[in-house]
Design goal:
The complex is a heterodimer of chains A (about 220) and B (about 375).
Chain A: E1 2-13, E2 20-31, E3 34-39, H1 46-53, E4 61-66, E5 69-70, H2 76-85, E6 87-90, H3 102-107, H4 117-130, H5 146-158, E7 164-168, H6 176-193, E8 196-200, H7 204-207, E9 212-217, E10 220-223
Parallel strand pairs in A: 3-8, 3-9, 6-7, 7-8
Antiparallel strand pairs in A: 1-2, 1-4, 4-5, 9-10
Chain B: H1 2-9, H2 11-47, E1 53-57, H3 71-78, E2 83-99, E3 102-111, E4 121-124, E5 132-136, H4 137-143, E6 150-155, E7 158-168, E8 172-173, E9 176-182, H5 183-189, E10 203-208, E11 219-223, H6 224-229, H7 234-265, H8 268-276, H9 281-312, H10 326-352, H11 356-361
Parallel strand pairs in B: 3-9, 5-7
Antiparallel strand pairs in B: 1-10, 1-11, 2-3, 2-10, 4-7, 5-9, 6-7, 8-9
Helix pairs in contact in B: 1-9, 2-7, 2-9, 2-10, 7-10, 9-10
């Protein structure tokens, strides 16, 4: 069953001679319980595609549906709710809130409403354990290593049990062993909880752990 | 609460911000306090008089210094039906040498002993004779004089020794400590030689309704407040002080407002992350307002404490008069808090329209 569907999506930045077509006529779908690795060289449009799926950007043309609803028609408030309730983001930089501890960064998503706080606390502890972060749960984010921060970001993305996970280079700052553990945890979570996931990666070893590989070049999907 | 956690975790940063708020609020309060203190020195003794109205000589242009009323004027004023009570009051400034080669000016007010113009005595007793004097406690601080001491006052072309029989707390009259003598003693002090017409009083203090605006051949009645505002220099001084006060309030409020506006905009990257993971614009603005509320209330509260401490200690002298009223303190404190909140509110539009992608790239 399809969760995310992109249909002929295009995104351009700038106008006239300054115009850059970052994404051109992209069509693909991600089903429930499926991890799609999005691979391609730098500047190929992978991160832009991820931002479009997460409603951080609006497409120039085309349609993006999540659970059958066209998110490109959403207003600002609906987009905020969509990001809050339906999407889990892991950004290229870990993007932690620097003055919060690892656990507080996870619990932060409860501040935005619409979720039971006690269930959230249980889930935070469970995810910290699962991602091998229990020992640093009370460490301030700025004192965590790059790998720890990245895992906290993944845990945070899973906190609200979103339907769709959008993950940008999750293992960029991790060693191979840890990277594999993190991706495996991510893939396992997607399978067990029946979510959809797009994972942007440069690393073939990580891409191979996904269910499907979509290659993108110059803003266009080559294969997938 | 994210806002409160940040304050707790970034104590130094928020301590500095609170310090800036404190200093600006303190500055506003000090300007206000100095204004009120100066205002008090202009004539609290006049404002403290137990009456509603004052009758001046019509040619005095509402100046107590120039006003001289004759017996016939005083009688005529007393006979106005709306006048419930009336008592003559004399004023003259004298230089008193209270220590060898050390002198200062005092405001001598002549009153009829036992009349309602006589102030409440806080130490000692009331005047009972022409050679007795009540002195204000500001003079006791200045000259060290107390009950039982003697003061030599120039009377006509000589000096007369007055015995201090009581201390009053009436403050100043024309920026000079107020002293009270028997009206006949005042008349003796202002004696201008044989043949000169002796005044009955400078003004008449009145109690009664709807007396303002009444006038006769040689007199006119105004409210006590009008009389105060017409003390030489008071109006100009008050305008200057008010201008300073309002400018202080305005500039202080603007500085704090802009300060918090800039601080909020400096957090663009962090706000972008929060937006990306689902924080609404309303949530972000609320957190900003909460943070500013905590910091500005803390800063303003500390400034109130510091201002009161200043009033009570180092600067509370007669040479640097500072007085605070709760109204003035509350105005300054509330202005600072409101200005901070306005600063955040002004940045609300930018906060709600932050593009998470661009904001996160700034991190």
């Amino acid at each position: 069953m399809t969760i995310l569907q992109l249909h002929d999506v295009a995104k351009s930045f700038g106008e006239g001679s300054q115009r850059v077509d970052a994404v051109r006529g992209v069509t693909f779908a991600v089903g429930r319980g499926e991890v799609v690795a999005l691979a391609g060289p730098s500047g190929s449009g992978k991160s832009t595609l991820l931002a479009l799926a997460g409603a951080l950007l609006s497409p120039t043309s085309g349609a993006i549906t999540v659970d059958g609803k066209d998110i490109t028609r959403y207003g600002a408030r609906a987009r905020t709710r969509y990001r809050r309730d339906r999407v889990g983001f892991v950004f290229q930089g870990s993007n932690m809130v620097p003055f919060l501890t690892a656990r507080e960064n996870l619990l932060l998503v409860g501040e935005f409403g619409g979720i039971d706080r006690s269930a959230l606390r249980r889930r935070a502890d469970e995810l910290l354990e699962k991602l091998d972060l229990a020992g640093v749960r009370d460490q301030i984010a700025t004192r965590l290593s790059g790998g720890e921060r990245q895992r906290v970001a993944i845990a945070r993305a899973l906190m609200r049990d979103p339907a769709l996970l959008l993950v940008d280079e999750p293992t960029a700052s991790l060693n191979l062993e840890l990277g594999i553990r993190v991706v495996d945890a991510l893939v396992n979570e997607v399978h067990v909880r029946n979510k959809a996931c797009i994972m942007v990666t440069h690393d073939d070893r990580m891409a191979r752990r996904a269910d499907r590989l979509v290659e993108i070049r110059d803003g266009q999907v080559l294969a997938g | 609460m994210l806002a409160l956690i940040e304050i707790r975790r970034r104590k130094l940063q928020f301590g500095f911000v609170t310090g800036v708020v404190l200093l600006i609020a303190y500055l506003i309060m000090m300007v206000t306090g100095l204004g009120l203190g100066l205002n008090q020195q202009a004539g609290t003794a006049l404002l403290n008089l137990n009456g509603d109205h004052l009758a001046y000589a019509s040619n005095a242009n509402l100046s107590v210094i120039r006003s001289r009323l004759a017996d016939s004027d005083v009688s005529e004023i007393r006979s106005i039906p709306e006048v419930e009570r009336a008592t003559p009051l004399g004023y003259v400034a004298v230089v008193i040498e209270y220590a060898p080669e050390t002198s200062d000016t005092a405001a001598i007010l002549g009153v009829i002993p036992g009349s309602f113009a006589e102030p409440e005595v806080i130490e000692g007793r009331s005047i009972a004779g022409p050679n007795e004097i009540l002195i204000d406690r500001t003079w006791t601080r200045l000259a060290g004089a107390g009950v039982g001491d003697s003061l030599a006052l120039p009377v006509a072309f000589d000096t007369r020794t007055f015995t201090v029989v009581g201390i009053v707390d009436q403050g100043y009259f024309f920026f000079q400590p107020a002293m009270y003598v028997d009206l006949s003693a005042w008349q003796a002090i202002v004696f201008q030689g044989e043949g000169a017409q002796q005044p009955a009083a400078s003004v008449v203090l009145l109690q009664g309704q709807q007396l303002a605006g009444r006038s006769g051949a040689g007199w006119q009645i105004v409210t006590k407040q009008d009389g105060f505002e017409n003390i030489e220099g008071v109006r100009a001084q008050q305008s200057t002080v008010d201008a300073l006060r309002y400018m202080g309030l305005l500039i202080g409020a603007m500085v704090i407002g802009v300060f918090f506006y800039v601080i909020t905009l400096q957090k663009t990257a962090l706000l972008g992350i929060l937006k990306a993971i689902g924080a609404s614009g309303v949530y972000l603005v609320t957190q900003g307002l909460l943070q500013v509320l905590v910091v500005s209330v803390a800063g303003a509260g500390l400034a109130v404490g510091l201002a009161l401490l200043t009033e009570a200690t180092v600067l509370s002298s007669d040479s640097i008069p500072i007085r605070f009223t709760w109204g003035a303190i509350a105005t300054a404190a509330i202005s600072v808090v409101v200005a901070g909140l306005v600063g955040v509110a002004l940045s609300a539009r930018q906060v709600t329209s932050i593009d998470p992608i661009i904001a996160m790239q700034q991190q």
